[in-house]
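Chain A, query sequence.
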Amino acid sequence: MRFANVLKGQGAGAGSAAIAVCFALSGALTYAFQSVYFHALGKQESAPLVLLWTATFLTVQVLWIGGTQTLGRYVAEREAQGRDWGPVVSSVGRWQAGLLAAFLIVALPAGPLLTKYVFEDAWITAAFIVVVALYAPEYFRRGIFNGHRQSFRLGGQIVAEASGRLFISVVLLFAGLGVVGPALAIVLAPVIGVLAVRPAPVPPPKEAGEPFATGEALRFAGPVLLSVGFAQAMMNGGPIVVRLLGGTDAQVAVLAAALVLTRMPQYVLSPAIGALLPRASRILSTEGREAFDRFVVRSAGMVGVVGVLMVGATWVLGEWGLRLFAGRDFETGRNVLVALASLAALYLLSEMLNQALFALGRERLAALGWFAGLTTSAVCVVALPGDVVGRVAYAVALGAAVAALSQVVFYLAARGRPAA
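Chain A, predicted structure.
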């Protein structure tokens, strides 16, 4: 199946090139947003935004990506087989509503603790709680787009979110609002994404679909949530760990800027990799295991090439790129930047192999691989010598290497075996 054919119902001229452009544009807009506030605010004043951004996307990924992946997998399967996908959508909707209520019940009383130990400003804590809640419908919509093969609309939503965030931030910074401007932009961005792009109509199913209970969704999404939670703690938790270890605002900001710079291809590729699950599920259910294995090998090969290029480019241009991206006072060593680029490259490989394990019904193995990586990172943070920024950077890179190796081993072990 050609990738362009996956986009039927969105216009024959859409094509995979248009999807790549959407993802690349959203990544560029995200980088521009962060570069603007780093340059405008400097190391000290940008630290609260760094912590808001990090905590938001760590929590958002943990809470809402399970619903996105569940919709992507089971809606795609049922649509490919001509069965009604409505029970899947209803079940995931009820489950996410309950999860949102649980988050608010926990987060609101915990606000003072978050302010004391992480954000240091009550209004940043409030912004964090609000924006996490607002991302619930945005990620639900992403799952609908994935399940119905509306990748171009998914790309459009992500572009609308990123462009709205950048525009609001620039306007409010120009108006002299300081940290408040980018913080408000972060809060409003998911609302813009949901309002800007709606799902396209899809042909009605040919057959009725059996009920899809919330418990069935959680059997798939529970391990997915664990995978995402472990992965995001390792990938996005660095600035928070620096803060908890007593790092200064400047150290928090420098590590965050270095993470953002070295993750540029990840911003572009992660949405595309996340959309591979419905494609992989369709290939497995309609074309068989050999076609599925070929698809996984080709995808892993492409991600591996990108990873090598990421690390090489960081080795050559990383220090210069960090000063250009964030400002002249943002400096760290080449080795730290290469470690963070390796983290991003290995994360992409693990994320891609996760989609294969999810499609095979081996979600628990994916979660176990990330747990091994996160455990390695935690041990290394304690055991490695050096300043706090270097320790955290090397620790998460080593953890990502263990996670990627585990995912490879688990995928090879799962080949040819039925899901448990």
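Residues 293 and 415 are 9 Å apart (CA to CA). Residues 12-414 form one domain.
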